[in-house]
Amino acid sequence: MNPIMSRSEAADLVIAARRRLGLSWAAIAEEIGAPLVWSTAALLGQHPMTPEQAEKACRLLQLDERVAESLQTQPVRGADPAVMSDPTIYRFAEALAVYGPALKELIHEEFGDGIMSAINFRVDIARRPDPDGDRVVVTFDGKFLDYRW
């Protein structure tokens, strides 16, 4: 019996297939019927997919059942330090390092003592035209969870 393919190996195959087939992440998300950012994260190994989602994605990407099996496993969430040094990803870390304390203060002022959930959570990305150069708009939408004693 062969071991289940690693999530990172499956993600590498997904990325290669998507590029070779000329598919967008949006087209894949539409095919599996899930939000764009969630679908992309799941295909990159950060969320488990349902059997139906994994089968649809693999059919579209022309990948076999070993990849579909891997996409359904429970992931180890987080990022490799090498991934965190990527300039795009690092800028998110930098933005949170600079604005995180202010956001925390503003959340507490508006909602009270608690946190924004990253489990009951949605995230979206959009492009906004601007005369100075297009803007990247990232929306974090997390449920407020108050601390209860």
TrEMBL record:
Catalytic activity reported: cyanate + hydrogencarbonate + 3 H(+) = NH4(+) + 2 CO2
SUPFAM superfamilies the record matches: Cyanase C-terminal domain, lambda repressor-like DNA-binding domains
EC numbers for this chain: 4.2.1.104
UniProt entry keywords in alphabetical sequence: Lyase
Catalytic residue list: 91, 94, 117
Domain of life: Bacteria
Matches recorded under Pfam families: Cyanate_lyase, CYNS_N
InterPro entries registered for this protein in UniProt: Cyanase, Cyanate_lyase_C, Cyanate_lyase_C_sf, CYNS_N, Lambda_DNA-bd_dom_sf
Domain annotation Cyanate lyase C-terminal: ranges: 78-149
GO terms assigned for molecular function: cyanate hydratase activity; DNA binding
Family (UniProt): Belongs to the cyanase family.
PANTHER family: CYANATE HYDRATASE (PTHR34186:SF2)
Role of this protein: Catalyzes the reaction of cyanate with bicarbonate to produce ammonia and carbon dioxide.
Protein name per UniProt: Cyanate hydratase
Source organism: Actinomadura hallensis
